[in-house]
User: What shape does this take?
Amino acid sequence: MNTFWKVVLGVIVVLVAIKLLPVLLLPAVIIGAPLLAVGGLVIGGIATLASLGVTAVILLLIAAVVLLAVLSPIWIPLLILVGLVALIARAARA
Assistant: This one.
């Protein structure tokens, strides 16, 4: 088959595809529209879960800061005591 007939065959295939395009696109639209809607819902659900996770982490960090602030009368003097013991132990070694 020479090149001329290959080009003619290619042109005929392209013309037939252009003529059949509306008929071929209809099933794609019928199948694609619900899939697109479901995909949007799934992505929306994932985004919602992600935002809830970020909110939960922020709330836990706030709770930890509040707990540290409430317990500061206990852990700050204890931290000072541990620091003094470490300072005395280092001075005794030297």
